[in-house]
Each structure stands twice: as C-alpha cells, then as structure tokens.
Amino acid sequence: MALTLESDVKDILERVLDSRYENDLTYDDCLRLMRSNDVHAIGMVAYALKRRLFGNRVTFINNLILNYTNICITYCKFCAFYRPPKHKEGYTVSVEDGVKRVVTAKSLYNIRQVMIQGGHNPELGIEYYEDLFRLIKQKCPDVAIHSLSPSEIDMISKVEHSSTKEVLSRLKDAGLDSIAGGGAEILVDEVRDVISPLKIKSNDWLRIMEEAHMLGIPSSATMMYGHVESIEHRALSLMKIIELQRKTRGFIAFIPWNFEPNNTELYSKGIVKYPSGGMQLLKMISIARIMLYGLIDHIQSSWLTNGIPMAQLALLYGADDFGGTLHGEEVVTATGARSTTLTQDIIVNAIKQLGMVPVERDNMYNYLCMM
Predict the structure, then answer these.
(1) Which of 33, 87, 293, 365 is deepest in the core (most CB within 10 A)?
(2) Cα atoms in the Cβ-side hemisphere of radius 13 Å centred on 319
(3) What phi, psi does 324 have (nearest 5°)?
(4) DSSP letters spanning 84-108
(5) What is the pLDDT of residue 334?
(6) Are 90 and 83 a contacting pair, CB within 8 Å?
(7) Alpha helices in 75-201 (DSSP H)
(8) Can you tell me whether residue 78 is helix, strand or coil?
(9) Which of 1-15, 119-133, 219-233, 289-303 has the lowest mean pLDDT?
C-alpha cells in the first residue's frame, strides 16, 4: 500500500502497511519513528493497523486494583506511594480484608480481574500471597488474578531465599493467572540507576518475565516514559520487549504511560518538573502499535495517567483497549494528579462518543459482551 502523504518515515510506514510484510523492524527503525515529528502520519498508520486487527471494536475489563501494601525498601524516586518500614502511614492489607474487597467488588461490579500490586515489603513471605490467591479463587473462581510484577517476584524470592522460578511456580499453583508488567519503567540500567537504583536491573526484569512465560504464565509489558530517559533509551527499552516476545510470545498487552511527577523525589529535586504531555502519549501509542504489529496485539490507551479525553484520542492513534474500570487504586492517586475511580458506564460512553463499539473482555482479551 503506497501512502500519498510525504513523511520522513514514509518508507517504514509503507513497509508495515504492506500485507506481505512480516514484522522485522529494527532498533534503527524504532529510533527514526521516535525522532520523527510526523505524529499524525504515524498515528494514521497505527490506526489503520488497529482497524485491520479489531475493526471498530474497543475492549475494556471490569477490574479491581488491590494495592496490598505501601511499605517498600526500594525507595524509587518516581514514586509517591511508598512508605519505608515502620512509617506511621505504612500499611499492609490482611489476607482476610483483601479477599473481602475482591468479593465485594465481584458483588457490586461483577469484576473479571483483580490486579494485586504493592511495595517491596520485606516482612511478607510467599505464604501471604499463596493464602491470598487461594482464598480469592475459592470465593471468586471466575475472577482472574493478574498480579505482581517481576520486581515484587524478586522481593519474594529474596525473603524466601529461593529462586524466582520457584516463586512463580508456587504462585501459579496458588491461582496466579498472569503477571502485570509493572517495574519495567525503562529497561536500560543507566536510567534505572537514576530513578530506581535499588530495584532489579533490566536483565532481571526480562529474565523473570521469560521464566513466567516458560511456566505458562502470560504477562503484560509496560513502559514509563517522560522522566530522565532519552529517545534512544525509549527505543532500546521497547526493542528488549520485542526481542523477548519474539522468543516466548508470552506478552499479551503493552501499556505505555507517562511519568506523573507530582509528590515524587524527582519533582522535589527539580529533576522533572512537568509531565511529558499528550502528544508524547499519542506518539508512544502509535509507535507501539507499529513496532509491535504481529507480535503483541493489544495496546492499552493509558487513561490512568492521562485522563479520559486523551485515552479517547489514543484509540484513534492505535490503541485497541481502554484498560479497566478502577476502584481503590492508590499508586497514581498518591501523586494527586487526578481521581482514579472509573466505572463501566464512563468507559462505555467514552468509547461510544467516538462511534466505536465497546466490548467487555476477560483477562486474556477474549470478548464477553458487546455494549
């Protein structure tokens, strides 16, 4: 398919639109897309690819976020949520209370998924997570547990003095369905050494994801951009996810989201003063669709850090999934950026306003109900 428009990345865009094309885009291709200012041309092609895969449909999931503890010993400079051990504002949700929240959300909102994420709490052994997962499955067997991140898995392995693979295997046996993509940030250690020097290195994040995929545990992948990283770092981080996906095919979705600086150490020290803005979101969504085409089908609209209007625009720039309803989220809320409660009705209306068809999905992106 030939493009009539002129663009500095026209050759890449034409290549990805070619029906005979197999995705072999490179780091150099990714870097050129990220350096280009032709966001609208890139977005037009990304939207065409989205339409090719999903037509006019946009998915969402009824979801509960359970931030089970804010006690954390990695002290990430981009995080406003954590509290150090013994802090008066520190908390850990009991297993009983956690299960109660899931049961209540199932009753009130018919949730299909619970995302359980929190700090790196050295006081929590693996039995806490096993008990929590098993009881959730006993009470709500049809609620998928899409939970934890590679860095949390690593923390559990250190507490238990065991391998991350053993931790993953035990959690799967307890009911873990899939792993959240958090903790990726930018998968380049010179960036991580600035924003999260005590968190696992990029190769450890990738290794733990590969171990999960090999055990039959799928996952999402994320990128947090708009802080101290360069364009080259963004491209390299995305390529590392692509390389692992070509090997394992274990990633089911990709979620790029911009760093929100409010109430964080990066903000208080004057390192990052402003969010990266809406055009960067649209650019990252579009580039993700193009670079991941044929590799990772689902791109989330990233409403949580950008708001509903920008998420709507993201659906016109290559995203196919609105994400989830949200009740009880505390991590982004801690930045004070915006309210992070979102109901099904708001999502459905936002999608319909674009003339698109809302579709409720399950944890594995299977269609459940068209609205």
Answers:
(1) 33
(2) 26
(3) -120, 155
(4) -TT-TT--B--HHHHHHHHHHHHHH
(5) 46
(6) yes
(7) 95-109, 126-139, 150-160, 164-174, 189-195
(8) coil
(9) 1-15
Dig out the tokens for 68 from the structure. 């089970």
pLDDT of residue 62: 95
Residue 27 has pLDDT above 50, yes or no: yes
**Structure-token pair, residue 371:** 């609205």
Tokens 């949700």 found at: 93
Domain spans, the chain: 21-370
Distance separating alpha carbons of residues 236 and 243, to the nearest angstrom: 10
Cα–Cα nearest to 152, from 80, 89, 219: 219
- The type of residue at 2 is A
Q: Which 3 state secondary structure label does DSSP give 144?
A: strand
Sheet bearing 251-258, strands edge to edge = 219-225, 251-258, 298-299
Alpha helices in the chain (DSSP H): 10-17, 27-35, 39-54, 95-109, 126-139, 150-160, 164-174, 189-195, 202-214, 231-248, 265-268, 278-292, 303-306, 308-315, 344-352
Sequence-distant contacts of 186-194: CB under 8 A, at least 24 apart:
186/223, 186/224, 186/225, 186/227, 186/229, 186/233, 186/234, 186/237, 187/236, 187/237, 187/240, 187/241, 188/229, 188/233, 188/236, 188/237, 190/233, 191/227, 191/228, 191/229, 191/233, 194/77, 194/228
Strand partners, 92: 69
- Across 142-163, average pLDDT: 97
Choosing among 1.20.5.320, 3.40.50.720, 3.60.150.10, 3.20.20.70, the CATH entry for 21-370 is 3.20.20.70
Contact 43, 9 (CB under 8 A): no
Question: Is the separation of the CB atoms in 365 and 321 below 8 Å?
Answer: yes
3-state secondary structure of 298: strand
- CA nearest 190: which of 201, 206, 179? 201
